[in-house]
Design brief:
Elements lengths: L15 H5 L6 H31 L6 H20 L1
């Protein structure tokens, strides 16, 4: 990551509580941030899968694609689960 979030530099160490440190200390701000994180997590996973399909359709193949999708999937679902 290019910057730390909630004092953490490693993406795997960042939890919802770390994101909340970036928001104003109100329930409304935290609820709004949580909704935005959830939406971005869904969108990121969807876009990554679309990009992989596009690259494969263009005959640009690599075994790394599945590894990237898996990491995005794991991190997206981690945030989505915490937002519930």
């Amino acid at each position: 990551m290019a910057m730390k979030i909630g004092g953490k530099y490693q993406p795997g160490d960042v939890f919802l509580r770390h994101w909340h440190q970036l928001a104003a200390d109100t329930a409304t701000a935290r609820k709004n941030l949580t909704k935005q994180l959830q939406d971005l997590s869904y969108q990121c996973l969807k876009q990554a899968e679309n990009l992989k399909r596009h690259l494969l359709k263009s005959q640009l193949t690599s075994p790394v694609y599945d590894q990237i999708i898996e990491i995005i999937h794991d991190r997206s679902h981690k945030i989505i689960q915490q937002c519930r």
